[in-house]
Design brief:
Elements lengths: L2 E5 L4 H12 L3 E6 L5 H5 L7 E5 L6 H8 L3 E4 L8 H20 L6 E5 L10 H16 L3 E6 L2 E2 L4 H12 L2 E5 L5 E2 L2 E2 H11 L9 E4 L5 E2 H12 L4 E5 L1 H11 L9 H4 L26 H7 L1
Parallel strand pairs: 1-2, 1-4, 2-3, 4-5, 5-6, 6-11, 7-10, 8-13
Antiparallel strand pairs: 9-12
């Protein structure tokens, strides 16, 4: 039985990947640092197929043994902290230590790092650190693959899960900026299918992939489509960045803020695919429209 180790596997993308790998008969190891529900993770596969493992350091001997017995490693672990030190520790430093562990392993054939569409632009502190991490990974590991997905949608995703309740209770919907910023959302099932197929490719000639759906929306267009599918009339209120940023800056210091300043900056620039970078076309896949994700979430 082939073994896959997934850091950050308890999140939305991780759980969907685990379901797919479990069906294909993989043994799946899920290291974690912050508390998770181990029982729920184990239920995604058969008895003994999924192994959650708590660790505090990448130097843990048992964790190193698990790494050394795995053919594929996927790192979904990320952070949305606003402080540079916390971001640097959880993203750049963590991956630096992970690379050292891989270099001592003879079993890892592929290392897949999930970044994000537009990370290379360096428009935010988080993006700067992710871009630096991407460069480190591709320089140090020949077996590495960088995945830059757009906003991922599907049943239970964070984006729609936080947005739809507002559409259900409020006649007025805020639009950060004027709603003209573009993005290219992608379905979770297409992302999972791409990764599941990619790890079984014996030779991957590309090392960077951007994954986006077939449709480009402005945020206002996307919100209008949600309202239409819900058959609810809405009034969209522009909330200009100079006004909202100070409010979010204060709110993010509390445990109740739905968004922080790093996340808010995503609404300030277009987040769409570049034609020169490979994506679903590499595996001759045709991603589906996102309307199904909205309908299933309403």
């Amino acid at each position: 039985m082939k073994s896959i180790i997934i850091f950050g596997g308890s999140g939305y993308v991780g759980k969907n990947l685990i379901r797919s790998f479990a069906k294909k008969g993989y043994k799946i190891i899920v290291p974690y640092q912050t508390q998770i529900n181990e029982a729920n993770l184990r239920l995604l596969g058969s008895i003994g197929q999924i192994t959650p493992f708590h660790f505090t350091s990448l130097k843990n001997p048992r964790l190193l043994s698990m790494i050394n017995s795995s053919e594929v490693c996927i790192n979904l672990k990320t952070s949305w902290e606003s402080k540079e030190s916390l971001l640097n520790n959880s993203i750049f430093k963590f991956n630096s230590e992970l690379i050292k562990a891989f270099k001592d392993s003879s079993s890892i054939k592929k290392f897949i790092f999930f970044s994000g569409l537009g990370a290379e632009k360096g428009l935010t502190l988080r993006n700067e650190i992710i871009a630096k991490t991407e460069k480190l990974i591709t320089t140090e590991l020949e077996s590495s693959i960088i995945i830059r997905p757009s906003v991922i949608l599907g049943n239970g995703d964070k984006f729609l899960s936080s947005l739809l309740p507002l559409f259900k209770i409020s006649f007025f919907i805020p639009l950060f900026g004027n709603g003209s910023t573009k993005f290219q959302p992608v379905l979770i099932e297409d992302v999972v299918k791409f990764i599941s197929t990619l790890i079984e490719e014996p030779n991957t000639h590309e090392r960077l992939f951007e994954l986006g759906g077939p449709e480009v929306f402005t945020y206002k267009e996307f919100y209008i489509q949600i309202a239409d599918l819900m058959n609810k009339k809405k009034v969209f209120i522009p909330v200009f960045m100079p006004i909202i940023k100070p409010i979010v800056g204060i709110a993010e210091k509390t445990p109740f803020s739905p968004i922080n300043l790093e996340q808010l900056t995503l609404f300030e620039s277009d987040n769409i695919l570049k034609n020169k970078i490979s994506g679903f076309d590499y595996l001759k896949m045709h991603p589906k429209k996102i309307i199904s994700a909205i309908k299933n979430s309403i």
